[in-house]
Amino acid sequence: MSKELIRLANCTMAFDEEVVLNNMNLHINDKEFLTLLGPSGCGKTTTLRIIGGFQKPTSGDVFFDGVRINDVPPHKRMVNTVFQKYALFTHLNVFDNVAFGLKLQRPDGNKLEKSEITKRAMDMLEVVSLKGFEKRAVSTLSGGQQQRVAIARALVNHPKVLLLDEPLGALDMRLRKDMQNELKSIQQVTGITFVYVTHDQEEALAMSDTVVVMESGVIQQVGTPEDIYNEPKNAFVADFIGESNIVDGIMLADGLVEIFGRKFKCLDSGFASREPVDVVIRPEDVDIVDVKDGVLTGTVTNITFRGVLYDIIVDFKGFKWLIQTTDLSPIGSVIGIKIDPDGIHIMKKSAFSGMFGDYSSYSAEYDEIGDAEYEYEPESTEDGYET
Predict the structure, then answer these.
(1) Which one-letter DSSP state was computed for residue 359?
(2) Closest CA to 37 of 173, 170, 164, 190
(3) How far apart are CA 385 and CA 366, in angstroms?
(4) Which CATH number fits domain 4-230: 3.40.50.1970, 3.40.50.700, 2.115.10.20, 3.40.50.300?
(5) Are 204 and 225 in contact (CB under 8 A)?
(6) CA distances from 288 to 196, 259, 353 (A)
(7) CA dihedral of residues 83, 182, 240, 251 (deg, nearest 10)
(8) pLDDT tens, 102-114?
(9) CA angle (101, 53, 182) in 5-degree steps
(10) What are 246-284's pLDDT values in tens digits?
(11) Would 42 disulfide with which of 177, 214, 222, 324, CB 3.0-4.6 Å?
């Protein structure tokens, strides 16, 4: 069982009476890669700054290895930070940037021997794959290389925790993906706890042991990447973590939900009979079939080519669904769909119900599209299930 290293207990943070963190309770384990994920303004960077000692919570407590550290300044915490802007010393070469903190006087009044400084700095450069770059000027390095220098400088003092505030934000997409792998590898090699802040859900899913999804200063869900994606707790989490079709449903019984007046088998249970629910169906879990074989039928209103697959917008009774498929269905065509029970996830109604999941106004990637006329509705089978 992992040992708890950091705990935020009932932490609230307010600026000029505006609450940006609302009674947060969170624990972080030793050697864990934990990501704070959410949109801008959700409180994730504030949480990071509280852990680092740059801000003191308005109320609540911060514990490090069981000891309350609310009043411990940043330089006395066993925590280092890597920011989006790396703040490297441009007048120093790579080695001197990494070794800078080692040359300072230690809390006990002593300084490290030169040989120890050299060994630790060179060892860390090897960890971040920059061995042989020690004499290079940092201004001659690429963005990814500069980031690795910043990480080496932060890790060379052997902190227990490394805080990373959107450190990949300035990099292009290909380099971001490469650095995601680098960061996860560095974390596993060093065994240091990483607390990572991002608004990029793919980044969070790729690197993390644990993901904390936040919105409006409140934790919405904590879990593994697989749990967060496959078992979202509410419509906000389902929408923020990947694409989702989120429709109103009625739970008829364990393993049976009604959507658009049709009955679908599912794997969920524990809901009250005829309880209104939110139903999440991921675009990749929808199978396009012939109209005569469809549980539901709809009209294709928009197609976007994504390289490996197509994003298809389909109108079902005025509600637009996103379907991701390798099969092209032309705009205006009527298609049928089927969904296996394990492709349907049932959630309790929440404050976010009705806010997400309809692709009628998906303006980030699609043009404004009008309603298509619903043309076909298959007959139900004798046992009441749709097949």
Answers:
(1) G
(2) 164
(3) 34
(4) 3.40.50.300
(5) yes
(6) 39, 17, 27
(7) -140
(8) 887 565 657 788 9
(9) 55
(10) 999 999 999 999 999 999 999 999 999 999 999 999 999
(11) 214
CA dist., res. 103 & res. 260, Å (int) = 68
CA–CA distance from 180 to each of 45, 144, 173, 212, 357 (Å)? 19, 11, 11, 18, 29
* DSSP letter for each residue of 106-167: PTTS----HHHHHHHHHHHHHHTT-TT-TTSBGGGS-HHHHHHHHHHHHHTT--SEEEEEST
Q: pTM here?
A: 0.84
DSSP H or E segment with residue 190: helix 173-190
In 3D space, the residue among 168, 198, 164 whose CA is nearest the CA of residue 181 turns out to be: 168
Domain boundaries, the chain: 4-230, 235-361
Question: Tell me, what DSSP letter sits at residue 93?
Answer: B
pLDDT tens per residue, range 180-226? 888 898 899 889 999 999 999 999 999 999 999 999 999 999 999 99
174 or 375, greater pLDDT: 174
Domain 235-361 indexed as CATH 2.40.50.140: yes
